[in-house]
Write a structure and sequence with these properties.
By secondary structure, this protein is mainly α. The chain has nine helices and no strands. The chain is globular.
């Protein structure tokens, strides 16, 4: 029961409290670049979630059974980037073959998942936080769902921004950044909710 409780806490914390985009400010490039349309935002969120999950499934055993065993822990970042790059190439091939409209909609931002610091941050933080394999998978799922939630919410906000009559000096990226900061501050309201629910 305690294990299930801790997994639920990790999941809820990853989605709401420690949201990688809105709290840790990782993965801002696709957050700002692909959130203009709901379909693109959802596709990017799902793709990033998938990459986070699979990257964790691959990097956790590599870290503990290969790098730590051979005393090569200092190669962690390089190895993790190579794994993530290979996964992104695999996803790009699948999308181009089976969902060409989503592939075209994501455009240049799909290869940018390779350098998305949120994906790398999740895999490294799972190791740094000392999570077990199952906890790492749950954390990655929560971080991916948090990324997806942030993308979908912000695509709605951007739709309202695009239809608003902002002052000329604020049109475009300035009003987008202001809106992103307001959405980010709204998520700070979740800071005590996990403690309150599971105290």
């Amino acid at each position: 029961m305690d294990t299930l409780r801790s997994l639920i806490i990790i999941l809820m914390s990853s989605v709401l409290v420690n949201n990688y985009v809105l709290n840790r400010f990782l993965g801002i490039c696709p957050f700002l670049g692909v959130s203009r349309k709901l379909s693109s935002a959802t596709g990017m969120g799902v793709a990033v979630t998938f990459v986070m999950l699979v990257a964790t499934l691959v990097t956790w055993p590599i870290q503990y059974f290969v790098l730590n065993t051979l005393g090569l822990g200092y190669l962690q970042t390089i190895v993790f980037i190579l794994v993530i790059a290979a996964l992104v190439q695999f996803i790009e091939i699948l999308l181009k073959r089976f969902i060409p409209s989503l592939h075209a909609g994501l455009g240049v931002y799909l290869p940018l998942i390779t350098t998305n610091c949120a994906v790398l941050g999740v895999t490294i933080n799972n190791i740094t936080d000392g999570y077990t394999f199952l906890e790492s998978v749950v954390s990655s799922l929560g971080c991916g769902l948090g990324f997806l939630l942030a993308m979908v919410l912000f695509s709605g906000v951007r739709a309202r921004i695009d239809n608003s009559d902002a002052p000329p000096a604020f049109r475009g990226m300035p009003v987008t950044l202001i809106a992103a900061s307001i959405v980010s501050m709204a998520f700070f309201g979740f800071a005590g909710i996990v403690d309150a629910l599971f105290a």
